[in-house]
Amino acid sequence: MRQSNYQAIGLITRREITQRLHDKAFLISTAFTAIIILGIVLVPQLVGGDDEQRLGVAGEASRPLAEALEGLPQDGPVTIETRSYPDEAEATAAVKAGEVEAALIDGRFVVESEAPEELVAAVQAAERRLRVQRLIRTQQVPQDELEAALDPQPVGVRALDPPEPREGELTTIAAVGVLLLYLQVVTYGYWIAMGVAEEKSSRVVEVLLAKTRPAPLMAGKILGIGLLALGQLLLLSAIGLIAALVTGAVELPAQAAGTMAIVLMWFVLGFALYAVLFAAAGALASRQEEVQNTASPMTIVLVAAFMLSFQALSDPDGVIARVCTFVPMAAPLVMPLRITLGEAPAWEIAASVALTVATTALLIPFTGRLYSGAILRTRTQTKLREAWQAGRGTH
Question: Which of 47, 153, 174, 203 could form a disulfide with 340 if both were Cys (CB 3.0 to 4.6 A apart)?
Answer without folding.
Answer: 174
